[in-house]
Amino acid sequence: MASKKQLEQAHVATQLPFEVATTCLKHREGRLSIDLVHDDVEVQLLKEVEMIENVQALLQQRIQESDRQLNELRHCKSNLEADLKDKCSSYGLDSRCAGLHNGSLGMTLHNNSVKIDPKSATPAAYEAFSHDNITNAEKQRVSSCRQRELNEHTMHQTSNDLHKQAETVNESFRIRIQEMITAKTNLEENLNQTVLEISSMNENIAALREAIRLKDSPMRVSHMRLNTRSMRPNIELVRDPVQYGLVEEVGQITDSVEALSAKLNESMGKLRNLESNKKALEEDIAIKTNSLNIDQSQCLRLRKTLVWRRHEINF
Questions:
Q1: 123, 203, 219, 315: which could join 10 in a potential S-S bond, CB 3.0 to 4.6 Å?
Q2: Torsion angle, CA of 275/279/285/287, rounded to 10 degrees?
């Protein structure tokens, strides 16, 4: 009876690990994008769930076997008690007969009793009946001892297996969490560097725009001079060194502005790439933060309750 009760307690105790494992799997469905991967943690959690279900089935089988064994023992006990009761009754009757004598009071004739009852047992059947009861009882006692040993072995082995798998899952969680922390740290470092590069690029773009703006006034001056000198009358409208110098100056300013504009366009393109990289890094960091929250703050913290209550899962 005690062995069966321990089996039932062990079966109930498997419910907590089962709920923890299935809850962790449910939580991890909340991972996002690239992190929603069939990793070793998920492999070990699924293995743990399968193991617990197998253990529950095995414990239930042992409980049913123990029930059958208990019924057999109760049947043997009932047979022995009935046999013993009959023998005590017969012993009392035979003792009473042994005490009768010719001078006993109340002596009467019983003609119907002066014959052998055809329904009465033979001495061999009498001996065999009690012998069979004792033999069967001993057989069931031995079988009960074996069942109890089997129950204890099953509880001990399944407890060790579940605890070992629980540690495997926890270690897998710790490794995965450390990997994500490292990846998140690297992403954050890249993000910080990208932010610095964006700031530097914005300063560079501002400087280029300012340089282009500063070219506007000299260009206007050169154009104004050329336009004014184009009004010279008659022969005075001569292609003198000043005229060539002004045209060359306009060309130089134009080339400078085009070069600065090309650098500005190039810098704008780099800035767009940096902004795109920054957005991608921020998204990756958000994904890693979400995964860390699930594995570290939800799952691993939940599994610590399993460790704290390990003393309750003492199969």
A1: 315
A2: -160
DSSP state of 313: -
Averaged confidence pLDDT in the chain? 86
Over the stretch 24-78, which tens digit does the pLDDT of each residue have? 999 998 989 888 888 899 999 999 999 999 999 999 888 888 788 888 878 888 8
| Per-residue pLDDT, 141 | 83
Going 40 to 44 to 45 to 47, the CA torsion angle's sign is: positive
Tokens 């005690």 belong to residue: 2
CA 134 from chain center: how many Å? 54
Residue 33 backbone zone (phi > 0: left; psi -120 to 50: alpha; other: beta): left
In the three-class reduction of DSSP (H, G, I as helix; E, B as strand; rest coil), residue 132 is classed as helix
Tokens (6 digits) for 210: 């300012």
- Greater confidence (92 vs 111) lies with 92
CA nearest to 41, candidates 142, 145, 177: 177
pLDDT for position 264: 93
Q: Return the axis-axis angle of helices 301-308 and 123-214, rounded to nearest 10°.
A: 150
Long-range contacts of 151-156 (CB under 8 A, 24+ apart): 151/3, 151/4, 151/6, 151/7, 151/62, 151/66, 152/3, 154/7, 154/58, 154/59, 154/62, 155/6, 155/7, 155/10, 155/59, 155/315, 156/315
User: Which whole-number Å values give the CA distances from 31 to 37, 113, 278, 280, 296, in the listed order?
Assistant: 8, 92, 21, 17, 12
pLDDT at 308 over 70: no
Rounded-to-integer distance, Cα 288 and Cα 290, Å: 5
pLDDT of 22 over the 90 cut: yes
Q: Tell which residue, 129, 134, 158, 130, has the closest CA to residue 63.
A: 158
Predicted local confidence at residue 309, as pLDDT: 46
Is the pLDDT reported for residue 188 higher than 90? Answer: yes
Q: What is the pTM of this model?
A: 0.73
